[in-house]
Amino acid sequence: AQSVTQLGSHVSVSEGALVLLRCNYSSSVPPYLFWYVQYPNQGLQLLLKYTSAATLVKGINGFEAEFKKSETSFHLTKPSAHMSDAAEYFCAVSESNFGNEKLTFGTGTRLTIIP
Amino acid sequence: DTAVSQTPKYLVTQMGNDKSIKCEQNLGHDTMYWYKQDSKKFLKIMFSYNNKELIINETVPNRFSPKSPDKAHLNLHINSLELGDSAVYFCASSQEGTLAGEQFFGPGTRLTVL
């Protein structure tokens, strides 16, 4: 069974500082990994995804994530936080491909940006 | 243009009532999903449909019955509502045949059972 663990339910960083949101996965087959962002009172939006191509994945809004098989990790980073990055971030894993995917989500990390 | 839309956005009702949530996607996707997000923001899949056929049913109580009249619509009907059904329900869609295809989410329906 696949699962995702997000360390830290709340992360606070100062504006302009590095953002690091942690995600570790468990999967019996090579995983597909995703980061989604949820702004207040909105649905989820895809930030980036790993599909076994490049291990360093670049997404929208300046975010990127690195797939590390040896550490079973897929941490999300952004060099310089912006106030607009304040949101809930979800890591997710899927073992399927070609649609009909069952995404298993982590419990989410709320990112707060300190002015 | 809204890609995945849900109605209503808010739903407040009494215990024991029956209610429906509607979802429509205009992306031409083959697969649609329902997710439940609880008060702690935990997201869990409930159902998925592919071309109007049920693919995933994650041990959801049979009070929940999804219905897909066509591949652009996936509605969720809930019978005999309970307090524990209070949550935000998200509809999503994706395209079959796409490697690790992105799921597009609707804005959510906040259900409050009193």
Helix-strand blueprint:
The complex is a heterodimer of chains A (115) and B (114).
Chain A: E1 3-5, E2 10-14, E3 19-21, E4 24-26, E5 32-38, E6 44-50, E7 56-58, E8 64-68, E9 73-78, E10 87-94, E11 104-105, E12 109-114
Parallel strand pairs in A: 2-12
Antiparallel strand pairs in A: 1-4, 3-9, 5-6, 5-10, 7-8, 8-9, 10-11, 10-12
Chain B: E1 4-7, E2 10-13, E3 19-25, E4 31-37, E5 43-50, E6 53-57, E7 64-70, E8 73-78, E9 87-94, E10 104-105, E11 109-113
Parallel strand pairs in B: 2-11
Antiparallel strand pairs in B: 1-3, 3-8, 4-5, 4-9, 5-6, 7-8, 9-10, 9-11
Explain what this protein looks like in three dimensions.
- The complex is a heterodimer of chains A (115) and B (114).
- Chain A is built from no helices and twelve strands.
- Chain A starts with a strand and ends with a strand.
- By secondary structure, chain A is mainly beta.
- In chain A, a hairpin with a 5-residue loop joins strand 5 (32-38) and strand 6 (44-50).
- In chain A, strands 2, 5, 6, 10, 11 and 12 form a six-stranded mixed sheet that branches.
- Chain B has 114 residues and is mainly β.
- Chain B is built from no helices and eleven strands.
- Chain B has strands at residues 4-7, 10-13, 19-25, 31-37, 43-50, 53-57, 64-70, 73-78, 87-94, 104-105, 109-113.
- In chain B, strands 2, 4, 5, 6, 9, 10 and 11 form a seven-stranded mixed sheet that branches. In chain B, strands 1-3-8-7 form a four-stranded antiparallel sheet, with no helix packed on it.
- Chains A and B meet through strand 5, strand 6, strand 10 and strand 11 of A and strand 5 and strand 9 of B.
Structure in a nutshell:
The complex is a heterodimer of chains A (115) and B (114). Chain A has 115 residues and is an all-beta fold.
Q: Could you name the ranges of chain B where pLDDT drops below 50 across 5 or more consecutive residues?
A: none
Mean pLDDT of chain A: 90
**Major sheet of chain B:** 7 strands, mixed
Task: Give unreliable regions of chain A as ranges.
Answer: none
Helix-strand makeup class of chain A: mainly beta
Structural class by secondary-structure content of chain B:
mainly beta
